[in-house]
Amino acid sequence: MIHRESDNRIRTVRQPAPGELWNFTQRRLKWFDDLVAVQRFRRMLRQGDLEAAHRDRTPAIVQAVEGCQFLEGKLERMSEVYRRGVRHLQLVHYFRSDMGDNQTERADQGGLTAFGRDAIAECNRLGIVIDVAHGTMAMVAAAVRASKTPLILSHTAVAKGQPAEFSRRVSPEHARLVASSGGVVGVWGSPSAMKSLSDYVDTVALAVEAAGVDHVGFGTDNSGFGATPAVWDDYRDFPLIVRLMRRRGFSPDDIRKVAGGNYLRVFNLSVKPA
Domain 150-274 has what CATH class? Predict the structure, then answer.
């Protein structure tokens, strides 16, 4: 349905058949069930679950879906994926969505659609983290107004100025919109703009400069760059990132926020109490 072109832009090449994405989502939910059973992950479902997993040193998973095209206009499917353990939903992805405009297609829906607003209200009702990655700035601005909880923009990089048309990066103003909701901008390790872990930390610093240290996190998207590995492609390098952040001037408290504390706050404000 989507294909990465020689210019590295991802374009829609085929529209899914009716029911195709819902059937695919069902298979992936079963994959999550198997992963949890075999790897003995603990699903993060309620306020306090992340803290408890950290205390118990237990492998944990926040189950997410990238793009809500599987809904096909049927809002009741959100209750089904919630029942199956999903607590983080990204509203749009690469190809056209009835939720609103995305960054890599022509924006012609005025940002967030009425169905997108209904989906946000349903996320708020159920207790699901709302992710606006891939959304246009107009879509994000409308989502900020619609949501009762902070937003996550899970994976991007903040440009120094206005990004090029169809870029997946965001402007400083776009990042500040997410921050205005109390939310978090996740920084990825895109190999097209970064060559080293030091570059990655510089990109985190740029996001902090734009949005504030309370509104930035790690959002690596490590499998999202095609054949080229991400700059940070091995999570065993986490201590190296922390070391580089210390050298860059981040305080221990700042690092705790960016390395997970900010997402923890949004998760607990979004999901239901235990």
Answer: alpha beta
